[in-house]
Amino acid sequence: MSDFEPKIVGFFCNWCTATAADLAGTTRMQYPPNIRPIRVMCSGTVDPVYVIRALLNGADAVIVGGCRPGDCHYVSGNMKARRRMAILKTIMKSLGLAEDRVWLRWISAAEGPKFAKIAREMTEEIRKKGPSEMAGAWEA
Amino acid sequence: MTSEQGTILIVGAGVAGVRAALELAQAGRQVCLIDTAPNIGGTLSQLDNQFPTNHCGMCKMLPTLGRSRVAEFCLRRSLNHPNITVMPHTELTALEGWPGAFQVTLRKAARYVDPARCTACGVCAQVCPVEIPDAFNAPSARRKAPSPDSTPPMAAVPIVPSQGTPSSPGTAAVALRTPDSELRTPNPNLRIAEKTPGVAGVEITRLRKAIGIRYPLAIPNAYSIDMQACTKCGACVEKCPTRAIDLAARESTATMQVGAVVLSTGFDEFDPAPLGQFGYGRFPNVVTSIEFERLLSGMGPTGGALLRPSDGKPVKTIAFLQCVGSRERKRDFCSSACCMYAMKEAMLAKDLDSTIQAAVFFMDMRAFGREYHKYYERAKKEYGVEFVRCRVSRVRQRASTKDLELSAFMADGNITKREFDLVVLSVGQTPSKGSARLLETLGVQANEWGFCRTSEASPVRTSREGVFVCGSLAGPKDIRDSMTEACAAAAEAASVGKLEVGTRKSEQVSDGSLFRVPTSDFQVPSPNFRVPASTLPKTGHAQAGVSCVPPPSAPSHKPRVGVFVCACGGEIGRKLDTGKLVEWSKMQRDVELATELGYLCFDDDLKEMVEAAKSQAIDRVAIAACVPYGFKAKFERALADAGVAPEFVRVVNVREHVAWVHDDVAAATEKATALVGAAIAQLRYELPSIPGSEQLDQGVVVVGGGLCGMACASALAALGFDVHLVEKGKTLCGNAADIRHTLDNPDFATVLNRARADIESNKRVHVHLESEVVAVQGHVGGFVSTLSVCSKPRRPQPEWRSACSDAQGGADERRVAASDGASDSPATQISSVPHASPLPLRRDVAAAPPEGEGTTLEIKHGALVIATGGREHVPSSYLFGKDERIVTQHAFEKMLFEPGFEKRDIKSVVMIQCVESRDEKRPYCSRICCSQALKNARRLRELKPDAQVVVLNRDLMSYGFREQWYTKARDNGVSFVRYEPERKPEVSAKEGKLHVSVTDPYVAADFTFEPDLLVLSTGVEPNDTAPLARALGLELDCDGFFSEAEVKFRPQDFLKEGVFVCGLAAGPCGIREALAQAGSAAQRVVAALAQGTTHPARVVSEVNERRCAGCEMCIAMCPYSARVKDPRKRIARVLEAQCQGCGVCATVCPSGATKIRGLSDKQVFAALDAVLT
Question: Which of A57, B62, B251, B592 could tie B71 with a disulfide, CB 3.0–4.6 Å?
Fold first, then answer.
């Protein structure tokens, strides 16, 4: 399992986390290439369906990145995301799905190093867990 | 449209300058933003978090209207407005001419690195042999960029090769800080030259190369060379892949015509090195507040860990010393922001590690204003920050541990000594270096401390007409007040341009008038701000302005996507297989063209891209390049020539997200392919923007005819808007009518009367006295307000007559031109609707306007300004109302100006501050009462030099330049006695005498006074504005003041577009601040309406009408009031003008009727499929 390279989908908010990713890039912080970022306007737009769809379509994990609580460009979108992800995880857990493959992290625009650190941590963690069993369960 | 009005020059690109530039640009003016530094952002770029939110919040400064032009990325990253020309490294050297037709001379320092060619790849910094301290993270070395003329000849600069291995980013290296005297030396190189082991004063400093960038993602994102350190070895020139470096570059001068100048050169931190007692510069663990800010930053020298500069150990105890460089004899002013930022830094430190102990040593905790007192309480109670009231006399260092020992005179008179790991000096603000010369060059007066001189009645005007000032250059202040002033200065600068449209030549007008009221010579209406009556929206109900035109649908033909990969001269090309990426792209569905180019940011390659797109009839473009901040706008503009609309251009950041962060070429290529695939997939489902065609109504309603409302109306009228000033009372002026004098102006009443006369004669301002706004419907650019009118409107009699006579046919609704001032092209329409009973409309009496009670007026307008003001709180404690010798400050002021006061038998007066204020019931500071007490004490002492005045206070809030009046009052014999909120003064009346007893905790003594008069400073409370707030759908805070959109960056705005607030309605403020806020609110109106039509909407919600069940969940969730119910169709609609595209409504919509145009589910799913295959 050591050569398993997880595929992680990242939904990053335009204002904070996507900017932190740019900042990590500008300062050339190395992190594993497993996260595939998709820029959304706000973490509050991330519909649970996006997450489920990603997992069913072959993602080994999903990370949603937003502004720190209280700092949302759209006032409280990240708080809505938090609630939504909590519900999603509860449902996933009760269905016996690996809810720990869904991460929600607050990374502000100035936190390039934190972005790189989380990317490393997450890749490592998911690598340990192995491939997701939800992947390809589309037909089931 | 703009050139004839003249460009506006903004000098200094800090937060105030940027704000003023954005405001003017939004209003359609051309702006030239210059700064001597290589990058814009000023001090703000060093601050990660702001009080009182403890968050960044910078993105909230962005314009919310027309955001697709500028607001795609936060302002820390880009500033792309097409109307703004940013000129870094530029200095203003001469100003000639007159307002409206200035000729300025700009000196552009030699740009050794051409920003147009620099790709910020960093190759030059790798080869540069010279290291200098990183001035961004060690601000002791940071002073404004050296002015071009002070650059010494290169031969004189000592050559200092770098020592050891170059420091890698993120690691801390040790550099030397020189002894005190050399801290301000302009040659940072010396610090390296003296790098000898064993010298005291070593600090953690990340070194950088002589060629470098101030901070990552600086704007403009280009490198610059510190020429004082540069050895001109030429290594960078050789290596630069784009040949952007020219060491022989020379400075140049340019002249340009501008209409007005706004100065916003800001402040420098006070240099504490000369104050030997704090040991700054000698003791490594004594840092300034900005240095501490960088220590806290994740991008700072320690990577966000709070480590001691001396030994790198974690910090456990921190002392903050307040008033360093403020409130002393030589600098007798308060820097206004330091108390707040010290609290912020203490809290942020405790956020990092809750075991850290932080103590703030202060004299007065100046957390003045609405939110700030709560912040103080939060620091004390929630965070456990210790507050010690004393001034620290000395800091000593233990030689062995480098711990610091403070000696402090405690309140009880003893000297205590305490040890701390780190001491942070809360350094005050001082005018920025070079501002003295700038003011002198411009012939603008400075005050005794070097700040620009302004007057209370015109807070943003300088002594030279046409030159305005904002931000800390006009006096120390925080970001919120700088924001307000920046907008106000923008409004004033814009009205100079307006005057220029007329026949004005150089004539100085400085009659001391409070407001600028254009005389008839200048009444040439600008075509910008007028909307033909025929194009005004005719709707008058809840659905006003809801677009009923179907939004444009996607082109019916098959998409033709072009993929362009920028190699960035190998920066991308080397780290990933671009050839493979191009080949892969060619195989994708809908891709007609895929090609690789060398440098897409260069005009040649850009042209090639456009030509290629043209030749293949490409209509959608995916570009794989670098951070899209700077270049996306450029690409969009260029591709528009090839017929590709801006919304069909997507930039994938394969440099910062892939090439620079991944070593493995194969994996990096795979990721890049996935990202480009996602962009292609998203482009496939992209829809065109909704064009902005809806006309914006140009009328404005100002609610509240107090000082602020009048000033705002006056400013708006000067900018060419028609204003309805709605006042509840019978007269204008509100509270200001009771003000006889202020600290800065002993004869305020005369000025105010003149201002009132001015506004009453202003043809563009229609005053509605004894009227109230009872209902407001619609949205920005299309509001309909209903006024309940008790008396006739002052001006429009002729039209009223005709309207009333015309209406005899029984029509319920009559539309009339609002005023004679606007009769040529009425921007505002009024309809009068009989309220209780139909109006008697007999032809013979129709000449009389409708009057009396029970009439309502409907006014169509584009924006609304709330200036409903506040009032003095009426206390119930301290026997108020039970003894006539106990009065409030307002009453006392009135008494002081009564004839015969000198003869009254008043020998002693006690004033109690913070009466029923700053407590649990009213947890805010009213900001003005301390100044009231000072001015009234001064007046009393003038009238009765023998009278004894005692001011019982908790913290004396004489912020800014008011501090000098506090000093003068003390010198003049006014006594100030402290009391603790836990032990309030006690007042009793015995044997016909008043007794006031108080315990001063700092001298540990009880005092009893027997005053002839007891004056209570009760502070401000808002007027009852709940009905108005309900009518507008706005929130009030727990104290009844209006809650602004963002406390720091949007002080005049609400989340609901088109509604603004100023003055006491938004929180306590003094005259100066109120007038600045009035100007600011006026400018916010201009920015919202000046465009004339709504902006095109790119990322915006839209509703599938057939799916919408009308459940209103979206309406409940939308923070911007951008969703409304269509009562006829029973579905929810989108107000595109107000929608910010956050997508919350789309996510909550249970039936999937709402989707985000530009980021629909379809696009996300397509992107998901693309990244996972």
Answer: B62
8 Å CB contact between B869 and B545: no
Instruction: Report how far residue B232's alpha carbon sits from residue A18's, in angstroms, rounded to the nearest whole number.
Output: 38
Q: What is the ipTM of this complex?
A: 0.96
Residues B320 and B423 placed together within one structural domain of the fold: yes
Q: Are residues B46 and B29 in the same domain?
A: yes
- B946 against B532, higher pLDDT: B946
The Cα B727–Cα B767 span in angstroms is 8
What CATH number should be reported for the domain holding residue B907?
Answer: 3.50.50.60
A26 at B interface, C-beta within 8 A = yes
Chains A and B: how many Cβ contacts under 8 Å? 175
Task: Label residue B5 by pLDDT band (50, 70, 90).
Answer: low
Do residues B565 and B633 share a domain? yes
- Most confident among B550-554, B646-650, B1094-1098 (mean pLDDT): B646-650
Strand runs labelled E in B452-549: 467-469
Q: CA B1030 to CA B398: how far, in whole Å?
A: 62
Rg of chain B over all Cα atoms, to the nearest angstrom: 32
Tell me the residues of chain B between 759 and 818 that have a Cβ less than 8 Å away from chain A: none
**What residue numbers bound the domain in which B1035 lies?**
1023-1089
Residue A1 lies in a domain: no
Look at residue B751 and tell me if it is in a domain. no
- Predicted pLDDT at B527: 34
- Asked if residue B273 and residue B260 are part of one domain, the reply reads no
- Cβ-Cβ contacts under 8 Å, B1147 against chain A: 44-47, 80, 84
Kindly give, in sequence order, each residue whose CB lies less than 8 Å from that of residue B590, ignoring residues fewer than 6 positions away: B558, B559, B560, B561, B620, B680, B684
Query: How distant, in Å, are the alpha carbons of B181, B203, B852 from that of B281?
Result: 9, 9, 74
Which of B816, B808, B820 is CA-nearest to residue B832? B816
Examine the domain organization and report whether B400 and B493 are in the same domain. Answer: no
Tell me which of B398, B430, B462 is where a domain ends: B430
A19 contacts B74? CB cut-off 8 A: yes
Phi–psi pair at B1026, nearest 5 degrees: -55, -45
Exposed/middle/buried for B512, CB within 10 Å: 0-12, 13-18, 19+? Answer: exposed
pLDDT for B839: 32
Q: Across the interface, do A33 and B662 touch by the CB < 8 Å criterion?
A: yes
Q: Both B997 and B876 in a single domain?
A: yes
Tally of domains in chain B: 7
Q: Are B865 and B1061 in contact (CB under 8 A)?
A: yes
Residues of B in contact with A108 (CB under 8 A): 48, 55-56
B 1100-1159 residues with CB < 8 A to A: 1117, 1119, 1140-1144, 1146-1147, 1156, 1159
How many independent structural domains does chain A possess?
1
Tokens of B554: 């996607």
Q: Indicate if the alpha-carbon torsion angle B873, B878, B883, B884 is positive or negative.
A: negative
Domain check: are B1027 and B916 in the same one?
Answer: no
Structural domain boundaries, residue A71: 8-135
Residues of A in contact with B671 (CB under 8 A): 33, 36
Per-residue pLDDT at B329: 87
Q: What is the CATH number of the domain that holds A128?
A: 3.40.50
B1080 and B1060 both lie in a single domain: yes
Calculate what percentage of chain B has a pLDDT beyond 90: 62
State the pTM of this model.
Answer: 0.87
Query: Do the domain assignments include residue B747?
Result: no
- Does the residue B461 lie in any domain? yes
Within a domain: residue A140?
A: no
End-to-end CA distance of chain B: 51
Sorting pLDDT into bands at 50, 70 and 90, what band is A2?
A: low
Better-predicted residue by pLDDT, B217 or B845: B217
B528 located within any domain: no
**B1168/chain A closest Cα distance in angstroms:** 6
Of B987, B1021, B1055, which closes a domain?
B1021
Tokens 């009559």 locate to B814
